[in-house]
Amino acid sequence: MKAAYIHIPFCEHICYYCDFNKFFLQGQPVDEYLQSLFQEFKMTFDPTATKELETIFVGGGTPTALNERQLEILCKGIRENLPFTKGEFTFEANPGDLTKEKLKILAHYGVNRLSFGVQSFNNDLLEKIGRSHRVQDVYRSIEQAQELGFENISIDLIYALPQQTLADFRDTLQKALELNLPHYSGYSLIVEPKTIFYNLMRKGKLPLPSEDEEADMYRVLMEEMEKKGLQQYEISNFSRPGYESKHNLIYWNNEEYYGFGAGAHGYINGVRYSNAGPLKKYMEPISEGERPVFTENSPTKKEMLEEEMFLGLRKIKGVSVSHFQNKFTLDPYQVFQPAIKNMTERGLLEIQHDHIRLTEKGRFLGNEVFQAFLLS
Ligand SMILES: C[S@@+](CC[C@H](N)C(=O)[O-])C[C@H]1O[C@@H](n2cnc3c(N)ncnc32)[C@H](O)[C@@H]1O
Ligand SMILES: C[S@@+](CC[C@H](N)C(=O)[O-])C[C@H]1O[C@@H](n2cnc3c(N)ncnc32)[C@H](O)[C@@H]1O
Ligand code: SF4
């Protein structure tokens, strides 16, 4: 394992679309939570399997919702408990909550990549989706971060938001690209059960763009990124060469990683697991010296073959046939013969030298392609 994900499940407000594991910050036992995290590092980390981590990703929730004191404790605890010297160290940040002091703390502890949850450059839309930050906060936070020497900065955008038009999305994209950042993510809105948006949708009160409009937005996203020299390297991710997210590539390459924190998932020594999400259920076992694992599953060979394909096909480069053969001593063309044939005939998949990959049309219908790779 050369990657670690660390989950900070606190937010200063709850966005209408979000179903990640998170709790309203006020009144939460944040200090205790951080101590539990460090205990979890100690009881989970396997020094024989990992000499040095190559990537650390601190996500949430909102890691930057912690106050300065807590943020410093978190960074210090990470550096004291996990072996890491020179790799990619990402923190997710909410544009509104990142003060100069907090940025200085992150810089001091070697954080070298920031991923901002910007979502949109339209203040009306930001309000409608329940964000607390406004466009001005984005500019301020990014400027401050750059002044302090952060240059590997990414922003997340969401499209197909309620009442969003193609013209609006174009405008957001243009403003995002004017910032000249080395990395962008563009996600289409997923209306997840138990979110405020889901309830509105059930009542018929969520005016979403049509599927065609959503596809148009995705097309424009890809076109505009390309025009700016940002290479698409995954269905939703674009970067200047060399600025791909190394951490996320580890997921798509179907490699193992540690997952620490409430609700985090990990993949260690052949076992995929997820931690308990509720804070009490996460912290209690740890206080008794046990890992807070909630679900555990050791993928069978068949599941591993499937995962290799549907994770790998998310990358624009696709799945390397020779790597697949070396890893599994099986030929993907044989294992997945019907799926490859069918999806190629439908123009959703193509073979390029050593790689099996989605066609441009396939990128719009990724889920359909991934499903075809489930072995019966
Ligand atoms: C879990 S959030 C954490 C980042 C930080 N808390 C923030 O919101 O700024 C990570 C990213 O996932 C994306 N995301 C979250 N919920 C989504 C949804 N329902 N549909 C599409 N994208 C979503 C957003 O772009 C968000 O920035
Ligand atoms: C949606 S992605 C956004 C990544 C961002 N676009 C970037 O380039 O760095 C990040 C979110 O995925 C979730 N996530 C990532 N890895 C995770 C893991 N191992 N366990 C649980 N959640 C994870 C977290 O909610 C995190 O905030
Ligand atoms: S999108 Fe980010 S800030 Fe909003 S509720 Fe989810 S984790 Fe918190």
UniProtKB/TrEMBL annotation:
Predominant cellular place of this UniProt entry's protein: cytoplasm
Chain ranges of the Radical SAM core domain: 1-231
Source organism of this protein record: Lederbergia galactosidilytica
One GO biological process term: porphyrin-containing compound biosynthetic process
Function: Probably acts as a heme chaperone, transferring heme to an unknown acceptor. Binds one molecule of heme per monomer, possibly covalently. Binds 1 [4Fe-4S] cluster. The cluster is coordinated with 3 cysteines and an exchangeable S-adenosyl-L-methionine.
Keywords noted in UniProt: 4Fe-4S, Chaperone, Cytoplasm, Heme, Iron, Iron-sulfur, Metal-binding, Oxidoreductase, S-adenosyl-L-methionine
GO molecular function, one term: metal ion binding
Gene Ontology annotations for the cellular component aspect, listed alphabetically: cytoplasm
Name of the protein this chain belongs to: Heme chaperone HemW
Pfam families: HemN_C (PF06969), Radical_SAM (PF04055)
InterPro entries xrefs: Coproporphyrinogen-III_oxidase, Elp3/MiaA/NifB-like_rSAM, HemN_C, HemW-like, rSAM, rSAM_horseshoe, rSAM_sf
Residues annotated as transmembrane: none
NCBIfam families recorded: hemN_rel (TIGR00539)
Protein localization: Cytoplasm
